[in-house]
């Protein structure tokens, strides 16, 4: 079956620093990748959609300069949280979709900004 | 944007009991998906539904795609302790701009009492 690997699973960073989260499709080509944010006891909130080789499309209210998304290849997308602040602390989840493959989610990244 | 109303929000049941949860929407969806999320993990796909009226089973799980394409339910029979988790429904529009995005319900938290 389709597998999506997301790293790191947990990260603690200092306020003002940047953090990069990687999302890889291991056994299929992901033409589209999605990045979600999930607050405790809440549902997944779509942040942005990225297609390989093109700019990501951000949802309303999501700052594109703060949450940089790069989808440079068909198997890798990265989310960089720039100049992180405590309010950016959250659970970030990626999802990949490819031809003949439905939506497969990564295992998530718990970001804590101190 | 589209919204999915998922109910119940939470439920406590005895081991061995059957469980039912559902999602409704004011929008028509072309695909309905049901996911389970364990704490600190990404969602895992349980059942995917692609046709109105479709009834699909996966072990003790059964889900149906409503005839109106605006609703879906998930049943779990003979619950066991490992069924504990949060269950999310998700719908995909399937046509037009942003059609590959998933809209998530708010989740149903299931607790199983041994």
Describe this structure in words.
The complex is a heterodimer of chains A (114) and B (114). By secondary structure, chain A is mainly β. Chain A has strands at residues 4-7, 10-13, 19-25, 32-38, 44-51, 57-58, 67-73, 76-81, 90-98, 101-105, 109-113. In chain A, strands 2, 4, 5, 6, 9, 10 and 11 form a 7-stranded mixed β-sheet that branches. In chain A, a hairpin with a 5-residue loop joins strand 5 and strand 6. Chain A is globular. By secondary structure, chain B is mostly beta strands. Chain B has strands at residues 4-7, 10-14, 19-25, 31-37, 44-49, 55-58, 61-65, 71-76, 85-92, 102-104, 108-113. In chain B, a hairpin with a 5-residue loop joins strand 7 (61-65) and strand 8. Chain B is globular. Chain B starts with a strand and ends with a strand. The mean pLDDT of chain B is 92. The chains are: A mainly beta (114), B mainly beta (114). Chain A binds chain B through residues 4, 6, 32, 34, 42-44, 46, 49, 57, 91, 93, 95, 97, 102-108, 110, and chain B through 33, 35, 40-45, 48, 88, 90, 98, 100-102, 104-107.
Provide a brief overview of the structure.
The complex is a heterodimer of chains A (114) and B (114). By secondary structure, chain A is mostly beta strands.
Features of the shown structure:
heterodimer; A: mainly beta; 7-stranded mixed beta sheet; 56% strand; B: 114 residues; 6-stranded mixed beta sheet; 5-stranded antiparallel beta sheet
């Amino acid at each position: 079956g389709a597998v999506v690997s997301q790293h790191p699973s947990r990260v603690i960073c200092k306020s003002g620093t940047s953090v990069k989260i990687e999302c890889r499709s291991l056994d299929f080509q992901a033409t589209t990748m999605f990045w979600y944010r999930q607050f405790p006891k809440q549902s997944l909130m779509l942040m942005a959609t990225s297609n390989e080789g093109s700019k990501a499309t951000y949802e309303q209210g999501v700052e594109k300069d703060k949450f940089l998304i790069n989808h440079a290849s068909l198997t890798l997308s990265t989310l960089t949280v720039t100049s992180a602040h405590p309010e950016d602390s959250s659970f970030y989840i990626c999802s990949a979709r490819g031809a003949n493959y439905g939506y497969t989610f990564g295992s998530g990244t718990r970001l804590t900004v101190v | 944007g589209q919204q999915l109303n998922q109910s119940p929000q939470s439920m406590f049941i005895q081991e061995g009991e059957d469980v039912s949860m559902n999602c409704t929407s004011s929008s028509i969806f072309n695909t309905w998906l049901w996911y389970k999320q364990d704490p600190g993990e990404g969602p895992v796909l349980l059942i995917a539904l692609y046709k109105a009226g479709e009834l699909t089973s996966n072990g003790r799980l059964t889900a149906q795609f409503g005839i109106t394409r605006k609703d879906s339910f998930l049943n779990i029979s003979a619950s066991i302790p490992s069924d504990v988790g949060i269950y999310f429904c998700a719908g995909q529009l399937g046509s037009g701009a942003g059609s590959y995005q998933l809209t998530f319900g708010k989740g149903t938290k299931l607790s199983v009492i041994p």
